[in-house]
């Protein structure tokens, strides 16, 4: 016998249960009529979108889900629909996968392993499932599992013991660098442990800081990847299983069935584009406005903005002051022309002067310090927000992870904005991504990438006046933020001097209050600033061991 499975790698809007349900119905009909699929498998919590967070606590959730299931039961026939949703059963809320066929719910599985780390809060909302679910589909015994279940040996082994010959795994697994390879190794392990083929269907799209890159795939009972859907593309992707006499579900490899892999720069860049695009479109912003300084961060952010929503919906604004170099002005103009965006030059000197004159009596007796530098940044922030209010454009902030980590940014100044594509991108990766973007088409002048970075808030200022080189800084930050290594553990690597390590870690700790007020942004590492990392702003922890 042969079973054709359609992997529905789709983007849903969180909370929009009605339209998400319509998408399930529409795609099920397409899978049946156009692709001749026997089964269609949707991702985890498809009906609510993912992650629904505290929408799961709304009193009307149960009513809306039951109504959605009735719609699917009534309107989809002649194809098995495997779909994810939250459901209240005997007074408890479960993360479920249901199998619908010919107007009946013929099987329902509750997720057993509930992740409660990094960006996941499943235990806040759901009760743990306890039993396997194996259903008969065209004579094959098909087991269900949901996302985290496959990261543990027990649920798949339990399904296998219940007779499963094929596992359908519904996922909402967010992107981070190199996670693609981790998933493959994981499924290889589960498949070979249980001698069972596994279909891994992943969510597609972005929700606030999280990006889901799709990449749904299939491994056979020997753990060999035999199908790979494209990355960062919505669609239905089919795979045919033949049940042999030995009850092994087999898939014959065919040319073109393995989508090409992506390197780090390509995958991160696509995640940034997808994250920004979905945030703009799902929140119905008319467009994007950003400050274009002539530096590398704003140049890369502008390129991502154009790739996300098109040049006709992006405005770049150069806001020069007396410390702004002619090189920066020239490069900003060239970037805007290369990308074809609306470009404005709004000098801020008259506004800064007005601030300074007004504040002069209060500043009397105090020497010049970073206050005057911050006034420049805050004047730019006010200007951008005025344009945002007037035009309905969202301000795209341009700070990178290295800056956000050590507080090298101005509250209510260059931190002003609704979203950031560089929030989780270290400066050294910003350089790599800029070179990468130019391989797709030259849009960032080379000297923007090669010149020493500078905020240009003081004469002849460069970032390394205040910070170590970004090569050194990013290594320390990666060990402290993403690996949680202590100062002494970092020093044990014998790569950095003591004063530098302690100074950088101190800067990270004391600037937590700034990061709490920063806009959300694309998460591309295993531990970004946001849902991943939750440290108290006020604390007496001593840096060291």
Automatic annotation (TrEMBL):
<feature type="binding site">
    <location>
        <position position="173"/>
    </location>
    <ligand>
        <name>L-glutamine</name>
    </ligand>
</feature>
<feature type="active site" description="Nucleophile; for glutaminase activity">
    <location>
        <position position="147"/>
    </location>
</feature>
<feature type="binding site">
    <location>
        <begin position="291"/>
        <end position="298"/>
    </location>
    <ligand>
        <name>ATP</name>
    </ligand>
</feature>
<feature type="binding site">
    <location>
        <position position="374"/>
    </location>
    <ligand>
        <name>deamido-NAD(+)</name>
    </ligand>
</feature>
<feature type="binding site">
    <location>
        <position position="514"/>
    </location>
    <ligand>
        <name>deamido-NAD(+)</name>
    </ligand>
</feature>
<comment type="similarity">
    <text>Belongs to the NAD synthetase family.</text>
</comment>
<feature type="binding site">
    <location>
        <position position="179"/>
    </location>
    <ligand>
        <name>L-glutamine</name>
    </ligand>
</feature>
<dbReference type="InterPro" id="IPR014445">
    <property type="entry name" value="Gln-dep_NAD_synthase"/>
</dbReference>
<dbReference type="GO" id="GO:0004359">
    <property type="term" value="F:glutaminase activity"/>
</dbReference>
<dbReference type="GO" id="GO:0003952">
    <property type="term" value="F:NAD+ synthase (glutamine-hydrolyzing) activity"/>
</dbReference>
<keyword id="KW-0547">Nucleotide-binding</keyword>
<feature type="binding site">
    <location>
        <position position="403"/>
    </location>
    <ligand>
        <name>deamido-NAD(+)</name>
    </ligand>
</feature>
<dbReference type="GO" id="GO:0005524">
    <property type="term" value="F:ATP binding"/>
</dbReference>
<feature type="domain" description="CN hydrolase">
    <location>
        <begin position="3"/>
        <end position="243"/>
    </location>
</feature>
<dbReference type="Pfam" id="PF02540">
    <property type="entry name" value="NAD_synthase"/>
</dbReference>
<keyword id="KW-0520">NAD</keyword>
<dbReference type="GO" id="GO:0005737">
    <property type="term" value="C:cytoplasm"/>
</dbReference>
<dbReference type="InterPro" id="IPR014729">
    <property type="entry name" value="Rossmann-like_a/b/a_fold"/>
</dbReference>
<feature type="binding site">
    <location>
        <position position="398"/>
    </location>
    <ligand>
        <name>ATP</name>
    </ligand>
</feature>
<comment type="function">
    <text>Catalyzes the ATP-dependent amidation of deamido-NAD to form NAD. Uses L-glutamine as a nitrogen source.</text>
</comment>
<comment type="similarity">
    <text>In the C-terminal section; belongs to the NAD synthetase family.</text>
</comment>
<dbReference type="InterPro" id="IPR003694">
    <property type="entry name" value="NAD_synthase"/>
</dbReference>
<keyword id="KW-0067">ATP-binding</keyword>
<protein>
    <recommendedName>
        <fullName>Glutamine-dependent NAD(+) synthetase</fullName>
        <ecNumber>6.3.5.1</ecNumber>
    </recommendedName>
</protein>
<dbReference type="InterPro" id="IPR036526">
    <property type="entry name" value="C-N_Hydrolase_sf"/>
</dbReference>
<feature type="active site" description="Proton acceptor; for glutaminase activity">
    <location>
        <position position="44"/>
    </location>
</feature>
<dbReference type="GO" id="GO:0008795">
    <property type="term" value="F:NAD+ synthase activity"/>
</dbReference>
<keyword id="KW-0436">Ligase</keyword>
<comment type="pathway">
    <text>Cofactor biosynthesis; NAD(+) biosynthesis; NAD(+) from deamido-NAD(+) (L-Gln route): step 1/1.</text>
</comment>
<dbReference type="GO" id="GO:0009435">
    <property type="term" value="P:NAD+ biosynthetic process"/>
</dbReference>
<dbReference type="InterPro" id="IPR022310">
    <property type="entry name" value="NAD/GMP_synthase"/>
</dbReference>
<feature type="active site" description="For glutaminase activity">
    <location>
        <position position="111"/>
    </location>
</feature>
<dbReference type="InterPro" id="IPR003010">
    <property type="entry name" value="C-N_Hydrolase"/>
</dbReference>
<dbReference type="Pfam" id="PF00795">
    <property type="entry name" value="CN_hydrolase"/>
</dbReference>
